[in-house]
Amino acid sequence: LQQFSDAGSRKEHVKITSESKPGFLERLSETSGGMLMGLVTFLLSFYLLFTNEGRALRTAKSLDEGLSLVIPLDSIHSVSQQNEGRLVHLAGALSTSKPLFDPSYGLSIQAVKLKRNVEMYQWVEYEESTEYEENGEIKKETKYSYNTEWKSEVVNSRNFDREIGHKNPSAMAVESFTAVSPNVQVGSFVLSKGLVDKIDDFKQLSLSNLEDPHADVTRGGDYFYHSENPRRPEVGDLRVSFFYAGLSGDDPHLGSADKVTVIARQRGDQLVPYHTKSGDVLQILYPGDLSVEEVFQKEHQSNTVKTWALRAAGWLSMFVGISLMTRIFYTLVDWFPVVRELVNIGLKAFALCVATSLSLLTISVGWLFYRPLWALLIGLLSIVPIVVAKSRVPPKKQQ
């Protein structure tokens, strides 16, 4: 059954599908599949939590090691053989041997990276679904709506519920790309590929000083349009914008070259990765002129954020895994409305307590070989959720 809310433009339509309500055995079968998925998720959470602790401690020790060994360079314009193979700190302006070009649009810039971003005006499908029960059947009402938008990826209209009237081209006539300078330096030192990869603070390039490159291309604001009328684009029209990262020369419109701070190993006139005794690799780059202490403080903060994000992800995986594995108890009583809700609340509370306890226990085991006292403390904390849960159970009245 389909209903069109706008028969003229057909920008929106509704589809209703129905299926018989699944029986008890069918629901049980689905729950069994969920239990298997839950078991896999549950086991993966242990691996994630345990390895994350080892990674976090290894990174922290590597950063401490780096801070104790790093040597600030007196000059970035001369290469001293005394620092060969050592971890060095330097700050200065970026420089590249030659500008980056996009001959198709008559554009050049002295920068580390130049990105051409191409977008196509396309149909995009949105859907909203609601389910309800009627006459013993489960019905699903899905509303499909279509809108035209600029997208940097080709939207495959073949997957639309209704492609007629909403067909997109299968490819773009102009491709996006990113050009990277082959030789990037700070003073006399050449940056490794890993350091160059860290220069990714892209800014949009103003096109106000450029002419229209071709007769069929029109400049509007900071875009080049492949369109007969950029104000009223049609499906298939293109617009092109440019972004740059790491300005490496003085530009009359963009200002002076960007400054960066680097900590890496000196190998001749190259700055390459430094392998620490703890097993990590140090090759650090930040925008701006930072001291050694500021750089390592930022790295420690980044490590802390990553550690807590992965801890949260591990706990969530464990909670979801336990919830899926215990879902069968809900399925067994799902025809009793009141009992069903009580069981659901109980299962969620159980999953919450067990996931929290096991997560803390796993983290403590991860710390066991590195910091035994902290491991013991976290291990004791792991029993707190169980104690709290037991304390909330009312004691039996004395006879």
Automatic annotation (TrEMBL):
InterPro entries in alphabetical order: TMEM43_fam (IPR012430)
Entry keyword set: Endoplasmic reticulum, Membrane, Nucleus, Transmembrane, Transmembrane helix
Record field: transmembrane: 31-50, 312-333, 345-367, 373-389
Family affiliation: Belongs to the TMEM43 family.
Keyword set includes Transmembrane: yes
Tagged with keyword Membrane: yes
Main subcellular location: membrane
Name recorded for this polypeptide: TMM43 protein
Membrane topology category: Multi-pass membrane protein
Any one cellular-component term (Gene Ontology): nuclear inner membrane
Biological processes annotated in GO: lipid metabolic process; nuclear membrane organization
Highest taxon above the source species: Eukaryota
Subcellular location: Endomembrane system; Endoplasmic reticulum membrane; Nucleus envelope
